[in-house]
Amino acid sequence: MLIYEPKGRAREYAALACNVYSGCDHRCTYCYAPSATRRNRDNFAISSTRPDFIRKLKREAKQRWLDCTTERILLSFTCDPYQHLDVKEQMTRQILEVLKARDLNVQILTKGGFRALRDIDLLTPNDAFACSLTLLNDKQSLEWEPAAALPNERIYSLLRYHEAGIPTWASLEPVLDPAASLQIIRETHTFVDLFKVGKLNYHPLANTIDWRKFACDAVELLKELNCKYYIKRDLAHYLPQSLNIKAPIVKPIPNRVLQPTLI
Hints:
This protein is an alpha/beta fold. It is 32% helix and 14% strand. It contains 11 helices and 10 strands. The longest helix is centred in the C-terminal third of the chain and has 14 residues, at 211-224. It is globular and about 50 Å long.
């Protein structure tokens, strides 16, 4: 299945997803996707198109159960839809055209920066545009995310989509520098409609961060700025009772789809 229902941590972000490419050329050092797809990092960074993708997607998009859902299909979990390869292949635009022709809603999650502005004409207020925001310092960003767009590019793309009337959200995950994540909230809250805040996993740096303090600081700041937010389970675990946030309520939705509610 090209359009699938995510499991585990991914389900906290989307009820449906579709991965545009095989691999990702952004080479983020913390990326979980190589292990999730059972590929070594060097091989994973040599991304490619997926065989006969558009024909298969057109067939899948006609399935009756998809006609009944209003859930947004996320592009993408195991790759970036606006990685450098997309400048040449433009598979993301083709996929958006197929899905929108069937009146299916989409949400894009990217670190592509300016590259993501190309398809702004295809999205509607029923869709959403999101960026992963980790750092504000360009030098640090290049160390952790060597080929991804720089932070200011990603932030600018969020602003542009917001101005176009497209709902926006920011993924503050992984958190590499708690102070930077908090500053990102301060600098973007006027044009980001929802913040999804997580932590860093599977990396030695995670053991050096005071997650309880960050979780409390993040919630208090988000409340102070009157932001809509979602604290992922991994981070919510560290919140004290006074700031207790219940785990997402998973509600049944007709025709297979489950979607966690947002705070």
